[in-house]
Amino acid sequence: MRILVVDDSRAMRLIVMRQLRQAGFDDAEFIEAQDGVEALQRLSESVVDLVLSDWNMPEMNGLEFLRELRSQGEQVPFGFVTSEGTPDMVRLARESGASFLISKPFTPDNFRDALDAVGVR
């Protein structure tokens, strides 16, 4: 499984990858990007099975990135991992094509539950 992790914080990308390994995705190959612009570039270079993205990033935020992906017809499972998880954000994420939103702080169980719910393994 190939997972694209998008966050402007390198430390947060490492935390997300560690949590995913602890959630049972220890054989996953991780691809990293620091914002939506770089993530689109990474996706043009390789196929992934899952995208996990922060919401707030410079250049192109997570919502703009998701909307661009969907406008291109890309239907890869997409989840937000963000410090904000208001009901309005959850609604907006789902309306834009996200499969789930995980709020920080999170645990391996949060990832396992969210990914199991959307059939990603």
From TrEMBL:
The lineage of its organism: Bacteria, Bacillati, Actinomycetota, Acidimicrobiia, Acidimicrobiales. InterPro entries: CheY-like_superfamily (IPR011006), Sig_transdc_resp-reg_receiver (IPR001789), ST_Response_Regulator (IPR052048). Keywords: Phosphoprotein. Transmembrane segments: none annotated. The keyword Phosphoprotein applies. This is Response regulatory domain-containing protein. The modification 4-aspartylphosphate is found at residue 54. GO terms for biological process: phosphorelay signal transduction system. Pfam families: Response_reg. Residues 2-119 form the Response regulatory domain. The keyword Phosphoprotein applies.
